[in-house]
Design a protein that fits this description.
There is one protein chain. By secondary structure, the chain is of the alpha/beta class. It folds into 2 domains: about 220 residues, 3-Deoxy-D-manno-octulosonic-acid transferase, N-terminal domain (Rossmann fold), CATH 3.40.50; about 190 residues, Glycogen Phosphorylase B (Rossmann fold), CATH 3.40.50.2000. Helices cover about 50% and strands about 15% of the residues. It is built from 18 helices and 14 strands. The strands form 2 sheets. Strands 3-2-1-4-5-6-7 form a 7-stranded parallel beta sheet, with helices on both faces.
Amino acid sequence: MRTFYSLLVYLATPLVLLYLAMRGLRDRGYLQRWPERFGFFDPPSTTGAIVVHAASMGEVNAVTALVGDLRRQYPEIPLCLTSVTPTGSGRVRALFSDGVHHVYAPLDLPGAVRRFFDRVQPRLLVVTETEIWPNLYHEAHRRGIPIVIVNARISVHSLGAYLRVKRLIADALGKASVIAAQSEADASRLIELGGASDRVTVTGNLKFDLQLPSGLAESGESLRQGWGRERPVLTAGSTHEGDEGPLFRAFKGVLEQFPTALLVLVPRHPERFSRAAQYARSSGLRVSLRSEHAGCPTDTQCLVIDSMGVLLSYYAACDVAFVGGSIANLGGQNMLEHAALGKPVLMGLHTFNFRDISNRLMEAGGALQVVDARELEQAICLLLLEPERRKRMGQTGQLLVKSGQGAVQRTLELFKPLLTATDR
């Protein structure tokens, strides 16, 4: 089965390269460092690293606290972080600078994977969430490198697809030394896919152990002072085109009741910055780009943030936060940062990538779910009219985040016997 899979990956490789080239037309990062994706790179100065694979920026953010604790508890062991996207790479560099080695993860081709392991020679492979790569797992197992899948999750939405290739997935999961699932439901699905029941454990969601940057509240307050402290602000983060149409229609309705309101729009992908701004203009909103102004002109109705790595400051500055990818049928984004900042959260129906988190947040009363532009407009106006309700929802979200913490420490405990064994 894995041989047939490898053949398909070889055949698909030209399409992958074409995809990278097409993405590179808008984000130059996709055109850079291609040899790394085939296992060609200068090896790190030391071997025996713990390799942590976090595909994109969201996964990098999720393992930030885990990586920080690994550095503190095992300062003598080098760390190598791999990612797939340029945004993930940029986030690694922003968070850890030269403290960890970063390289793009190899394509799941047998030769590329072998070259990667030849150069890094890791002692432990840590893979986040649903990154199941049969050749990567096979080669690590063949070399006696323990594999730990952390923050593991399988949504109901994706379970059916995995079951169609269960033999292949079961073979990969069977090579993992430990699978640390986010929830009991995730653990059950991973066992159904072939994970050994005695190796699957529930540690909770690493995302709850988020570490907000120091000075974030002050940064948000500074932005508000520049905009006007009494000005109502909605921040919509990580948006896609499918979110933005309903969002713009809803916000035009909000402006009828709150003429000074400001929509802060943060598109998910850098290549969409200019298109999102044009979409907002064509929807009848007065638009400014962050890159064009030191502040925000007073007549601006939609401020498009065309920069990476600054989203949290704009969440800290808002009255209400909207989760992108949730009206567009893309599964939503992590909303714990909004909650940790004490912001009431609005989301669409499509939150399957974060189903457990979104359900818990709604059940606790920290979030509202909307179906369409009309309901979104009503929810925004409701929250802007009722500051006490906003405050209660924000406090509820903060308590939920606090109650869910501890996954990092539980996950670290799983590493101890594996790291001890590799030192013998």
